From TrEMBL:
PROSITE patterns, per the entry: FAD_PCMH
Membrane-spanning ranges: none
Name of this protein: D-arabinono-1,4-lactone oxidase
Domain of life: Bacteria
Length: 424
């Protein structure tokens, strides 16, 4: 047998070396793989920047199985295969006259992987993507199917699950009626204006984002995604706190061609073509980057931004762009927005790992007073026991995991480091 090349994540900064790589084409085949494995993890779209998906045993991809998206018009839900991307699912949902409540900046990511890690879009009143889940169906360690529904005892602990409760076969998501949106960008918003008007800025539209490369004198792009039915005036303000409307389309990273970005400048379009920052038909970058994200309580947002400004030049030395987004609190045990309205501070670094890691350490030190929760799928250096202490229900999740998977079939080094500290 020829030696197989190692598997890598999307960015290429993490290599996977499983004992075997399984690509079933039917549900029965997938169930058999899971039942027969000693250890198994699922590889989704590969858009993680740490070893959360790594497997010391079998690595499983469901991408070869026939996808499905089954709408229940009366209930206003869709039951969909977990390996679908949000681009694929949102297009199908829109054709039926419905919408998802939110999307992440990239529509290329898988539904199951995004939910499992608490991935989010933006909007003061919008929960992260996992909050749309009404039911989740796992392939358990014995290969049997197990469905957990909203209202059941284990539900709040099962949605954001880090891959530790089984292989997701399907998810059922709440839907909204389809809606149209307009997107605007403002250039050159000053740090003082952001700090003084943070709540007004982020609350001014259905979804907003602030982008900055930091540095000595940080300036922000302000992205505004407005539902047309919420827009009370035909035209947006020509400036916001001294920042003018952009005179053309923009990419979040200054100087980069905006061709891959969703349509801006107030052109009306469907929700799934405005909520993401990037179009699904484009690869937004080559993956030549590393990403980190830290999620803090809404009440700490201004103080945290001031702390980042204090190390702005150091951040800027290895940073492509930083994005600031907001989301509503939820009750999902391992969600980074658990029990607090949340602000996400996202960092797209250069791909120089040796240069980036010391800056990540300085960033984490600056955010230490705010009990920042790292995104589960991004690069961070905070010890696992410290991360676990920032989730009130971590011990309960460890007990749930041990009950559902007593032999630890779905564990790997990443999850063992987290759950062992929680007493599993």
């Amino acid at each position: 047998m020829p030696e197989r090349a190692p598997l890598h994540n999307w960015a290429g900064n993490v290599a996977f070396s499983p004992v075997s790589f399984a690509t079933p084409t039917t549900l029965d085949e997938a169930r058999a793989v899971v039942a027969g494995a000693d250890r198994v993890r699922v590889l989704g779209s590969g858009h993680s920047f740490n070893a959360i998906a790594a497997s010391e045993g079998v690595m499983l991809s469901l991408a070869g199985m026939e996808p499905f998206a089954e709408l229940d018009i009366l209930k206003g839900t869709v039951r969909a295969s977990g390996w679908l991307t949000y681009a694929e699912l949102s297009a199908a949902v829109h054709r039926a006259g419905f919408a998802l409540h939110n999307m992440a900046s990239l529509p290329h990511i898988s539904v199951a992987g995004s939910i499992a890690t608490g991935t989010h879009g933006s909007g003061d009143r919008n929960g992260n993507l996992a909050t749309a889940v009404a039911a989740i169906e796992f392939i358990g360690p014995d290969g049997e199917l197990r469905t957990v529904r909203r209202g059941e005892e284990d539900f709040a602990g099962s949605v954001v699950h880090l891959g530790a409760l089984g292989v997701v076969h399907s998810v059922t998501l709440d839907l909204l009626p389809a809606f149209e949106m307009r997107q605007y960008v403002y250039d050159g918003l000053g740090l003082d204006a952001v700090l003084a008007n943070f709540d007004e800025l982020t609350g001014s539209a259905y979804s907003t984002s602030l982008f900055t490369p930091w540095g000595a004198d940080p300036r922000f792009q302000f992205w505004v995604k407005q539902r047309t039915k919420d827009q009370t005036h035909p035209f947006p303000p020509s400036s916001r706190y001294g920042a003018p409307l952009a005179d053309g389309p923009r990419h979040p990273v200054p100087g980069v061609d905006p061709a891959a970005c969703t349509v801006q400048q107030g052109q009306t379009g469907p929700w799934h073509e405005r909520l993401p920052h990037f179009r699904p038909e484009f690869t937004p970058s080559s993956g030549d980057e590393i990403q980190s994200e830290y999620l803090i309580g809404r009440d700490d947002a201004v103080a945290a931004l001031e702390a980042l400004a204090g190390i702005g030049e150091r951040l800027g030395s290895v940073l492509q762009i930083c994005e600031v987004r907001t989301m509503a609190a939820d009750d999902l045990w391992l969600s980074p927005a658990f029990e607090r309205d949340t602000v996400g501070l996202h960092f797209t670094w250069t791909s120089d790992d040796a240069a980036v890691r010391p800056v990540v350490g300085a960033l984490e030190a600056a955010l230490e007073p705010f009990s920042a929760r790292p995104h589960w799928g991004k690069l961070f250096t905070i010890p696992m026991n410290e991360i676990g202490s920032r989730y009130r229900r971590m011990g309960d999740f460890a007990k749930l995991r041990a009950r559902v998977d007593p032999e630890g079939k779905f564990m790997n080094g990443f999850s063992a480091g987290l759950f062992d500290t929680a007493g599993s």
